[in-house]
Specification:
It is built from eight helices and ten strands. It is α/β, with parallel strands linked by helices. The protein has a single domain, classed as Rossmann fold. Helix 2 packs across helix 7, helix 3 packs parallel to helix 4 and helix 4 crosses helix 8. The longest helix has 22 residues. The mean pLDDT is 92. Bound molecules: NADP nicotinamide-adenine-dinucleotide phosphate (NAP). NADP nicotinamide-adenine-dinucleotide phosphate binds next to helix 2.
């Protein structure tokens, strides 16, 4: 692709202030894309530039998230989106101001809203690729009702990562025949800032293990190469080795009930 064509391309990367997201921002700026990214904190000033836009958005506040993205799409039309922002679950069940479990909302539901806002305002003639960050633990999760109060940190995190993977298959089914392509990505485990909110003991273990872990830069390179590859499949999950892996399929009734509940929750944010 010529340099001029790439310069006209625009990518949204959520959570571009740290770890994998920050590396993806740097890779796509280097490739010549216009990069739009989000986060909650102040950005290092070295990231500023004319092909770079940063928005402070907190996904634990759905009004704030939807309002911000309704403004973002007035200014930016995307070629690619990477749903990257995410947290490890808090030790104790934490409820957002929207009345939802924190991990479920930040990792999954906020991205579901963002994707729908972008897709519904995207011109039919223009291609769009949406990638979503899953995790190796998606395999151990089960689909639960949103109102299920049972909580474990690992259950909440793995659930959010299964839902992110399922979201790509779901959106692929809903929008099949359009110029849209969806895939999720299991990056394996890598060193990043994600462990900063964990207990002191966990953070201590992480500091010991980090030098032996895969770097977030390496993982970012793999994801960037998949999303820019000419031929990729829609509705599937790719792993770090670029292989397609199965997504556990919940029973049809459970899946239908889950998507109905999610759509009811997000509908007021899409108007
Ligand atoms: N690290 C791993 O081993 C691993 C393994 C599998 C999957 N993943 C997934 O990879 C993705 C990137 O993680 P990472 O390891 O690079 O983590 P990270 O370094 O902690 O980066 C997370 C990003 O998400 C943003 N974020 C967190 N909470 C947010 C909120 N409430 N609202 C808006 N943005 C928020 C952060 O921005 P601010 O702090 O500025 O808000 C930051 O830019 C995540 O989805 C994670 O689940 C990571």
């Amino acid at each position: 692709m010529t340099e001029q064509v790439i310069k006209n391309k625009k990518i949204l990367i959520t959570g571009g202030t740290s770890g994998l997201g920050l590396n993806l921002v740097r890779i796509f700026l280097e490739k010549g894309y216009h990069v739009v990214t989000t986060g909650r904190r102040e950005l290092p000033s070295s990231e500023q530039g004319e092909r770079f836009s940063y928005y402070r958005v907190d996904f634990s506040d759905l009004e704030n998230t939807a309002a911000a993205f309704k403004e973002i799409i007035k200014v930016h039309e995307f070629d690619m989106v990477i749903n990257n922002a995410g947290i490890l679950s808090p030790v104790h069940r934490t409820i957002t101001k929207n009345g939802l479990e924190y991990t479920f909302q930040v990792n999954f539901l906020a991205h579901f809203i963002i994707n729908e806002i972008i897709i519904r305002n995207h011109p039919d003639s223009k291609k769009l690729r949406i990638a979503t960050l899953s995790s190796p633990v998606y395999r151990f999760a089960k689909v639960h009702s949103i109102s299920d109060n049972q909580y474990s940190a690992i259950g909440a995190y793995s659930g959010s990562k299964l839902y992110q993977a399922m979201m790509c298959s779901h959106l692929d089914e809903i929008y099949r025949g359009k110029n849209l392509l969806f895939f999720s990505f299991d990056p394996g485990v890598f060193s990043s800032g994600i462990y900063r909110m964990q207990s002191r003991f966990f953070s201590f273990l992480y500091k010991i293990a980090a030098p032996f872990m895969r770097s977030s830069g390496k993982v970012a390179n793999v994801l960037a190469s998949i999303i820019t590859q000419e031929e990729i499949r829609s509705g599937v999950l790719y792993n770090y080795r670029k292989r397609i892996k199965p997504i556990p399929v919940p029973e049809k009734d459970a899946a239908d009930a889950f998507w109905k509940e999610c759509r009811e929750k997000i509908s007021s944010f899409l108007d």
